[in-house]
């Protein structure tokens, strides 16, 4: 018997990786909460151990994989607990717990200190204003926040990061990868590179970079809090409708569906850009998928360690109350990247499996787990624990594997400097050919 109602509001976890967005999910509720008077303090060894033990035991009790991916979870407690008791600051204490969690190689299981309270639907995070991605084996700047100090330096999109606080970036990445233990895949490497500027807000980091002509420069850049607005956008390029969705929430799904009739008016092909989509509410994703797929399509199954499970299906009636909205039959291309995560990966896999869309871009995150609820720590921090695994309708496990595009379009440094988008160019070519051939 399917336990659908129990997990009706389940969503897939949002793990924000610096300024690059990857996996997303929301809980049903917090298991525990504390008022200010009952909070413990991590300024004392006793307080730190109380928080550490609560975190370790919660993961021990609730993690979806009772084998912990082959990690000796008991040994991790014995190794990290003494260091946690001696931590010199709350920041150092939480960094130690993150190192322990990192050994699970799971982007969804995350811990946030009281100062970092994380709202999945209004993600707030610390950044220096640079987004970095490994391209052709080199960490390159792919995004610069126009409101950051970085925007007022000589650094440009396409420049290569060569050092951080005078440490060669290659050495720093290797040090970060060591915290994961065992073999390291490309997705682990991606997360390590995306988080290389991590540190507390109000501090600064010295960044060295190499320009297009090989000159090496550096600047001291402050870390600051920023917030990312999640939503969608529509654009027209000739007869092509370009639809970008940042995340799946109930409000985004409904507003997106309302905008579709005008966005698709006169269009002959659709490009659905999910390259920055970190996932979101599973039902909201199913609503959007219902715009492109028939009703009753199995979008896969979630299961916890006890064997409790449920299936997700398309169901158009939730959105088709919008006037003039009908199922989209136009030729469709979906764009993906390493930042396409969680619920977005489920949607991409379903569209690809049903041959409803051609998938173009690079492999997705491989971050497809889910949580039942958030856990409040004794000091006011928050722990997210992956409690559900996921498999597609055909039984394929996407975690760690991701979705491989039908057409790979790796980015080059030359593309970044020239502002060329090879994935979109390939999508445009395919759709224009499809329209001409009538297919």
Task: Write a concise synopsis of the structure shown.
The chain is α+β, with helices and mostly antiparallel strands and 439 residues long. It contains 10 helices and 24 strands.
Could you characterize the architecture of this molecule?
- The protein is α+β, with helices and mostly antiparallel strands.
- The chain has 2 domains: 1-121 and 230-428, 2-enoyl-CoA Hydratase, Chain A, domain 1, CATH 3.90.226.10; 124-227, PDZ domain (Pdz3 Domain).
- Helix content is 27%, strand content 24%.
- The protein has helices spanning 45-62, 73-85, 90-102, 169-178, 186-194, 250-264, 282-289, 343-353, 413-418, 422-437; strands at 11-12, 14-17, 20-24, 110-112, 124-127, 130-135, 138-144, 160-164, 167-168, 204-210, 216-222, 224-227, 232-237, 240-245, 269-273, 280-281, 298-303, 309-313, 332-336, 358-361, 374-376, 382-384, 389-391, 407-408.
- The strands form 8 sheets. Strands 13-14-15-19-20-24 form a 6-stranded mixed β-sheet, sandwiched between helices.
- β21 (374-376) and β22 form a beta hairpin.
- It is globular.
- 42% of the residues are buried.
- The model is unreliable at 1-32 (pLDDT under 50).
